[in-house]
Specification:
Two copies of one chain form a homodimer. By secondary structure, chain A is an alpha/beta fold. Chain A has 13 helices and twelve strands. In chain A, the strands form three sheets. The first copy, chain A, has a seven-stranded mixed β-sheet with strand order 1-2-9-6-5-3-4. In chain A, helix 10 runs antiparallel to helix 11.
């Protein structure tokens, strides 16, 4: 196990690569560790959890709600969990988000650890402290920002990760390349999804590179005044589409990135050759690049977006591959751009 | 209006005495102010709220639940409240607690102001940033610590405060005197509840003194490592009794303080004359001093208390009037003390 320590707002977060799940014992007494995980992960990896109390929930996006959180909290009360316990979220982004939220509100906050098991969780959701649950169609409308004590990477969880989840996760990796790392974009172009699924060394190297990239962005701008906001690239349209059409997160972000790239070509001098390169890259990673959408429905959902500020919305555009910018666009402008780009 | 500024963890909180509710405009643009208040307050003081969006809820303790919070959040989404808005909680402790919790989790946090309307809210609940909702019988099991930008004291809200709420609020004032201020205890002994109800100048002076006392305790120990914990005096038994027997908070704390005083006499050299003085003082303020309790039920609830640490509970005891201490008592010790003191 290799531990890299970062300080966020004065609090230490230990990132543990190449770990074994049992290494959670390095951070807390094992008789006071509660694991929150998903049914499938528990079934596939039950031998990892024999020493701990476990709460299992359905870890699908539709279940990422306050009512699941209520259920988790009532189980924690029944288990007599007090403030001396550690809660470890083990799963994809849905589980790590709910674990972070629960840890932040249970008895006004208990110690948190995260062990992401999916590409999306490992490269994105578990990093940065943001958590949340959905309210009806609105994504992450309720949540907090709460730091884990550690993020533990046990790469053997990838042994059972379904192909669909590899694909989902690479959408965030491509997003990171688009906004921050042209060299990584080139590297991804030279490979495809099957290469990474079948080559564990290269996959974990790519994951570590993305952890470093996201951590650096978050550390440089914890309160999302500038650079961190760029991590929302593809997510403004993406979140709306994900909820309206019940599309997996990665595919929705893929469609959202391509829409944002087209908008960037229209009003930000992003070149159209690069739009095509992005489209081809997304297809190489088996991500969806088009979807019939109802513009009025999408616009109506955008007005509820957390990124909204009055009559406008902060929108992430590309200058070139590896270089992004944030512009405030009015809903009117977005409407006319949707008419042109779709 | 007189403004006193304090800095909590680097964030400024403005305490505004002798204010008019409309002074909230000093802190935020009035077209982006959302008021959360209680039905009764709204009916009695509707003219104060004409310039603002308002959400009204039942502000009774039984309604301080996640389901009320869910309802508030869904109304906020319908009203298109975004992160540029200010949420102002106007009411007693139940309302200011729910306002703080909602502001902390809505879209991962929006700006918060508090305008407490009861003695309990003004002297206790609105100060210090703690909030929460109850889960079944367990008080404040879910919540966060979240600072308001301002706490506004419009004393005309006291014009309509029911006598029962004056009585409830004086339990916390007596608590402050017990743990920190012998002179205030003496002053309270020379007066009674009717004196304060009928003498607004003296009542507001007493409120201001208690705001200063609680603010000083919180500032000196924001993370509740030592002194701040003393504010739980009377609340360990109090919370259990409040929920089991559906007794108003102030009366439950009154019973809890007297129980804790008897325990202090038993194991902490607190003198029995002072126990009698406290009992008489509570009666002067029309607070309940005895209640038939089922010891097993009370002990069972104590095991869920946030103050629990493993097999013991941190318990606030008095050394003398105006001077408190914290001791860790095992559940076994508490059980045998309950047998002796009840």
């Amino acid at each position: 196990m290799k531990i890299i320590e970062s300080i966020f707002s004065g609090e230490k977060v230990s990132v543990c690569f190449d770990a074994n799940f049992n290494n959670v014992n390095n951070f807390h007494s094992s008789d006071k560790i509660l694991v929150l995980t998903d049914q499938n992960i528990f079934t596939l990896h039950s031998q990892k959890f024999t020493n701990f109390q476990v709460i299992k929930v359905d870890g699908s996006e539709k279940n990422k709600t306050q009512s699941t959180v209520d259920n988790i909290i009532s189980q924690m009360l029944q288990l007599d969990i007090d403030k001396t316990w550690l809660l470890v979220g083990v799963g994809g982004g849905v589980i790590t988000d709910m674990a972070g939220y629960v840890a932040s509100i249970y008895k006004r906050g208990i110690k948190l650890g995260l062990a992401p098991t999916s590409i999306l969780g490992m490269t994105d959701a578990a990093i940065g402290g943001k958590n949340g649950v959905n309210v009806g169609m609105y994504k992450n409308m309720v949540g907090t920002t709460y730091r884990p004590t550690f993020i533990l990477y046990d790469f053997t969880f990838l042994d059972t990760l379904p192909t669909a989840e590899w694909i989902n996760g690479f959408a965030e990796i491509i997003k990171h390349a688009c906004i921050k790392d042209e060299a990584m974009f080139n590297e991804l172009e030279n490979r495809d999804i099957n290469f990474y699924i079948n080559n564990r060394t290269e996959a974990t190297a790519m994951i570590k590179k993305n952890v470093a990239l996201k951590t650096a962005v978050v550390l440089a701008d914890e309160f999302e005044k500038a650079d961190r906001f760029q991590l929302n690239f593809g997510h403004t349209f993406g979140h709306a589409i994900e909820n309206l059409y019940n599309i997996p997160h990665g595919h929705a972000v893929s469609i959202g990135m391509l829409m944002a790239a087209k908008v960037s070509a229209e009003i930000n001098n992003f070149d159209s050759v690069s739009v095509e390169r992005l489209k081809e890259l997304l297809q190489q990673y088996k991500l969806t690049v088009s979807q019939e959408i109802n513009k009025e429905e999408v616009l109506a959902l955008l007005t509820k977006d957390k990124k909204r500020a009055g009559d406008a919305i902060n929108f992430v555009l590309l200058n070139s591959i590896g270089n992004a910018t944030v512009k405030q666009l009015s809903f009117k402008t977005i409407q006319s751009l949707l008419d042109q780009t779709l």
